[in-house]
């Protein structure tokens, strides 16, 4: 990820991204309360007893925009280099960054309870060490090898193993393992080396690990839990309302900047794409029994 794009972003893209986070944060609790009122009487699929953690995860899931999914969608539609595509891509990148920050700060409270404050502080310390200590070392090592063109498979494997090391550290600290993997990817320098690592890992990651993850997540989806109830039309209504949050926030901001309603609606639909982070949050909620019946509803998105 190129951090300069985030730090030097224009006001329109930043406003769209921030509105796509703030508006769901404000409205999502109301939709969660509506959901509980609709399904609170169902005994076959009981709702969670504690609602505080459920509120947090429900809200975070709705604020997330899947940046890789948006980039792939725009590329497939040949919109990547259009004005609309650039605005959507930049807004998705900013939203993804804020999503990671919120994920790192708030998800530990849903996982670790009272000890979450220590998890957050230790994770922040770990991130600072990675940026100001580990990154310069990696940069020095990469520059030295690039100058002499001495790359071999063992050295590249040693660099890639850093993903597993950072994942284990963040998991040990009480945060999710993907936080460490994300931080390691963030501190790797852009340029030729990044392209080399992506070309080597793409076949194994994109061809094996990603389908395995989505398959395992999809096997948990129980559509019968939704449509076997008499009140399933209310579930459809709630899903539509959940999708409408980012669309309405995007329409509001684009109207403020003088964009056409059609373009604002298109941006809202594109930014409604979810990625692996939303599924990871849902899996956390499922495994920790933070959300029970709720997962079946949201995962349809």
Question: What would your notes on this structure say?
Answer:
The protein has a single domain (3-298), classed as Up-down Bundle (Na+/H+ antiporter like fold), CATH 1.20.1530. Helix content is 78%, strand content 0%. It has 301 residues and is mainly alpha-helical. Mean pLDDT is 80; it is low at 295-301. The two termini are 26 Å apart. Helix 2 packs antiparallel against helix 11, helix 4 runs antiparallel to helix 5 (83-112) and helix 5 (83-112) packs across helix 6.
Keywords:
301 residues; disordered C terminus; Na+/H+ antiporter like fold; mainly alpha
In short:
By secondary structure, the protein is an all-alpha fold. Helices cover 78% and strands 0% of the residues. It contains 14 helices and no strands.
Q: In the CATH hierarchy, what is the class? A: Mainly Alpha
Report the average pLDDT across residues: 80
Give the oligomeric state: single chain
Terminal residue distance: 26 Å
Shape: globular
**Radius of gyration from CA coordinates:** 21 Å
Give the biggest sheet: none
**Number of domain modules:** 1
H/E element order: HHHHHHHHHHHHHH
Low-confidence residue ranges:
295-301
